[in-house]
Amino acid sequence: MKALWQQRFINHVKEQRKFLKLVFNEYFIIALIFMLGAVGFWYSQALTTLPQGVWWAQPVAIIIIGLVTLLFHPVTLLQAADEAFLLPQERSLPEYLRDAYSYSLLMPIISLMLLGFFLTPFLARGVGFSLLQVILLAIIAIIIVITLISNQLTAFYQSSPHHYLLGENIILNFGLLIIAVYLNTWLALVLAVLWWSWCEYRWHRCLKKGVFQWHAAIIKEANRSYQLKRFYNLFTDVPGISSKVARRKWLDWLFQPITLEQKNAYFYLFARGFVRNSEYSGLFVRLTIVALLLIYAIHNYWVLTVIGALFIYLVEFQLLPLFKKYDAIVLTHIYPLTESQKQQSFQLLVTIVLLLQWLIMTLALLIFLGLHLTTFLPIIISLVMVIVLVKFYLPRQLQKLKQ
């Protein structure tokens, strides 16, 4: 069983590396750097206006840490066929699960350490914590998440998984955080260690005497893997994951201005594809919402100028796959349409989408920042970015796609 885990772990790492290379391309890294910089700038500005010892700081810290600890699940790498083929080797399964348990702790521990680092100034100013108390709170959160994953593995040995253990996880998770924040961090640390020790004992007892619920464990691993692949599918095509296509009849009025003529055939096709396919319309909505949140939080005009231009570029770049989306459809080759009509129609669609995004961000800038001369700096630069992308950059990208 140990060799089986090692084989699956190697294949899992190879698969994750392949997708992460596609996700963290140079464009996404640039966007991530600017977004982290913008969030860091807003965070530092917000901390300067945060009153010391404000009453709502404790509940906010408890909710954030508590929800983050509940996000993580064990990575078992079990497959559907295991229910039949590995059943005779169930006595050797604990060796496999111990390796899975160790690997499952890696991401939660790293994430909580980063979260503790991020929340340190907030806890110091808003809650009044010392550095030692912040470190102890981070250790408590790490012990809690280790215990939660242990309990999720224990649930696979229960006759009715995910019932009382789920309630135990939620209640004791937030209960220990409340004790740590409101009462005493040392007391919460001792209670967390006691809870973890009891759960470890219970899990090892189940490993020796319990009956493993193969079906429940396989379904949970399939759901975890599917959610991760859905995230990857936002950036690249993932085998077995298809983007959601919806009719969206309530948006039919958007296509009424398009006259049913031969020259508009590709434009109608691209417009329908953009609206119906969540891979494109959903991404446009998500990026625009993130841009609006940053506009609301940040009042530095130079930073907002960069953010506006950056998000317009991200939308344009993410729309490029739509250009070749329908190349495999035979009718697009049979119908008497030229390649220039296709390119002009796609450029028109991109122009409309980017101008719509620019208009939404312009309204947000005017609402949140007011009508000032400096407000027009990000507005004008973003509009220039739209023109440069559509007139100069997009045609070059489409030529590369054709080749």
Automatic annotation (TrEMBL):
InterPro entries: EcsB_ABC. It comes from the Bacteria. The chain crosses the membrane at residues 20-43, 55-80, 101-124, 130-149, 170-198, 283-315, 348-369, 375-394. GO terms for cellular component: membrane. This is ABC transporter permease. Keywords: Membrane, Transmembrane, Transmembrane helix.
